[in-house]
Amino acid sequence: MTSTVPAAEAAPAERTLFDCRDSWAATIAEVARADERVVVVVNDSVGSSKLGGFQKEFPQRTINVGIAEQDMVGIGAGLANGGKVPFVSAAGCFLTARAMEQIKADVVYSQYNVKLIGQSPGVAYGDLGPTHHSIEDFSWLRTLPGITIVAPSDPDETAQVVRWAAEHDGPVYVRVSRMGVPAVHAEDYTFVPGRAVTLREGDDVTLVATGTTVVRALDAADLLAADGVAARVLAMPTIKPLDDDAVIAAARETRGIVTIEEAMVTGLGGAVAQVVVENHPAPVRSLGFRDEFAVTGSAEWLLDHHGMSPSGIATTAQTLLG
Amino acid sequence: MSTLAPLEKNAGLVHAVETTLLAAPDREIEVLGRVPAGASRAEAVAHLRRAATEVRRRAVQTVGAAGAGHIGGEFSITDALVTLYLSVMNISPAQVEERDPERDRIVLSKGHAANALYTTLAVGGYIAPEALRTFLQPTSMLNGHPARTKIHAVEASTGPLGHGLPIAVGMALAARLDGSDRRTFVLLGDGELQEGSNWEAFMTAGHQRLDRLVALVDRNRLQQGARVADTNDLEPLADKLRAFGWEVVEVDGNDVGALLDAYAGVPAASGKPTFVLAHTDKGFPVSYMRDDVAWHHKVPSAEQVAQALTELDAVLASIDTEEEVTS
């Protein structure tokens, strides 16, 4: 029997897509050249973190602990104690799930200056299945006081976030996606932690997206515009601390909010809903994964399947307009 | 003392100043500080024995007053703590306050022995003795498990087991990157070694040949609920560590002289990290506590506190006598 499952919605043909890991790899090397405190700690993930060049250039500053994530994160805390700026880089699923207690106790509770780089996060590993997805990371990590959680949405933002993380004194989690994304930010864009970015003005409905879903929200806004709906598009690179003001303004000025994330809806969706309910109650719809493990499928297909295709997002937005 | 002031980063925290105070001890501890420079081995041993006994005298009263604590495992690790802080390590209250990058590092991985650590810090002059009266009290810096954000001398917040060794490996790697000779010490429980994360870190330290890393295991043979051997046996522990690339030194962990000798051998000539297999007794040296699993976190009654003080005062008296004989 042939499949009745629709193919992923094709992106506009003229788009150039980027793997944000390339931007991460170039930037971490640049940062390491300027700051000798910077080291990377990996779990046999030199290749998947695209750190082959870094390792060649900085062999002493590339600490590969092998397949041992608890050790990896604890070592990161110890390196920070010694004044280093460790970037602990591993697949998001193993980094956050396997080493969650080390992240909580050794890094965040101890307030150590460790950068946690979740590579290929969300459902990037697609058909490798839910064991390799890290759709829980936003939800888990945002319960930890004092951590900053960032999901850049394009290569330039990835570079800016890596540079910022190296300067910032405190624990940071950064998602670095391998899913192809176009440049979504303007050339003069400056990443400001904790600040939403209004990519599209609009007063009918607000689409709040983060990381890989930002481009999907922009495409959905185009579809809505064709139907005469002015959708505001907020890119929310920082999941924590959340830009409460931007969310409250959206709740006040538009007729509802749709959150879109490559994660469990208790991540960005939960964070936005709480701000809305506590400050200016308004309709919120959360797109993402909802109390279920993903079925088998590629990353792009899974996002479409879970209502995060441009048309899926637009359809959900329309429900808020009654 | 400045040690009662909160870290700048946590200016919102209220420490000892406005908290409940536990009943005062029978007498305040002696802030003995480090073994004086130039002390003979006998003088050093006497100083450390006196300090360890002071710590135990105070710690048992703290647990009695607070109605909670882990006195058995605190008494077994006290000699190691005192030996490190007051003699072996290159560390001082000033170095801690100034965050001297070349200070030796120490992690109490068995964080439930916090009271022994706090009391050692008081005897060493790192925190004010009166702060001990806030143990476990609302807003105190003295949590049931040590918190880095609350006490300058605490290098890593611990409590969940199996965390300290990986952190110490990171500290030792940082020292190596700096080309520094500073050493890193970590104190582990034996039951704690059932946590798999330790074995990840044993592998890494062995592979990296971190010769300035010293792990001591407090081999008191008892975990919270039963004997380690009856729960998930560690033996042959020394062989395991040798197989993981460590130099193993076995000592009587309740003998400060033996501990001094063991630490004097670091770094090992072999270039390997050192594992001090410290044979101890839970509850040492108090007769009714020794080697009894009940004293993992049992709280002594007023009579039992008094009994412990009587026995510990006899130890102090014997140290005095020995000093008189040798001087």
From TrEMBL, chain A:
<dbReference type="InterPro" id="IPR029061">
    <property type="entry name" value="THDP-binding"/>
</dbReference>
<protein>
    <submittedName>
        <fullName>Transketolase, C-terminal section</fullName>
    </submittedName>
</protein>
<dbReference type="InterPro" id="IPR009014">
    <property type="entry name" value="Transketo_C/PFOR_II"/>
</dbReference>
<dbReference type="InterPro" id="IPR033248">
    <property type="entry name" value="Transketolase_C"/>
</dbReference>
<keyword id="KW-0786">Thiamine pyrophosphate</keyword>
<feature type="domain" description="Transketolase-like pyrimidine-binding">
    <location>
        <begin position="18"/>
        <end position="183"/>
    </location>
</feature>
<dbReference type="InterPro" id="IPR005475">
    <property type="entry name" value="Transketolase-like_Pyr-bd"/>
</dbReference>
<comment type="similarity">
    <text>Belongs to the transketolase family.</text>
</comment>
<dbReference type="Pfam" id="PF02780">
    <property type="entry name" value="Transketolase_C"/>
</dbReference>
<dbReference type="Pfam" id="PF02779">
    <property type="entry name" value="Transket_pyr"/>
</dbReference>
<dbReference type="InterPro" id="IPR051157">
    <property type="entry name" value="PDH/Transketolase"/>
</dbReference>
<dbReference type="GO" id="GO:0000287">
    <property type="term" value="F:magnesium ion binding"/>
</dbReference>
From TrEMBL, chain B:
<dbReference type="GO" id="GO:0000287">
    <property type="term" value="F:magnesium ion binding"/>
</dbReference>
<feature type="domain" description="Transketolase N-terminal">
    <location>
        <begin position="50"/>
        <end position="308"/>
    </location>
</feature>
<dbReference type="InterPro" id="IPR005474">
    <property type="entry name" value="Transketolase_N"/>
</dbReference>
<keyword id="KW-0786">Thiamine pyrophosphate</keyword>
<dbReference type="InterPro" id="IPR029061">
    <property type="entry name" value="THDP-binding"/>
</dbReference>
<comment type="similarity">
    <text>Belongs to the transketolase family.</text>
</comment>
<protein>
    <submittedName>
        <fullName>Transketolase, N-terminal section</fullName>
    </submittedName>
</protein>
<dbReference type="Pfam" id="PF00456">
    <property type="entry name" value="Transketolase_N"/>
</dbReference>
